[in-house]
Design brief:
Blueprint: E1 2-9, H1 13-33, E2 37-44, H2 47-53, E3 61-64, E4 67-71, H3 77-89
Parallel strand pairs: 1-2
Antiparallel strand pairs: 1-3, 3-4
Helix pairs in contact: 1-3
Length: 93
């Protein structure tokens, strides 16, 4: 089973919550269609941690695998699903 790390970056809970809701919708379908993959979702909340991944810390961001896929906006579940599909095609590091 392959684990896909997913990081929701944001120092405001309401921003992380909005991304998490879209992620929950995308995750359900994704995991049912890809039983060999599981998502390891983590929330990154401190400014210092967020700055490790992106210079934007006032707005939410999303990482899937080792890629910063969305910065400064709220992605739709459809977009997240597409990024998860892309991650299944990537070669292991």
């Amino acid at each position: 089973m392959k684990i896909i790390p997913v990081r929701i970056l944001g120092n405001k809970g309401c921003q992380r919550y909005s991304i998490a809701r879209s992620l929950i919708r995308a995750r359900s379908d994704f995991e049912s269609e890809h039983p060999d993959f599981r998502l390891d979702v983590q929330e990154v909340t401190t400014t210092q941690e967020i700055l490790h991944y992106t210079p934007v810390f006032a707005y939410p961001s999303l990482m899937i695998g080792d890629r910063l896929v969305c910065v400064g906006r709220f992605p739709s579940s459809k977009e997240i699903r597409a990024w998860l599909e892309d991650e299944t095609q990537r070669e292991p590091a």
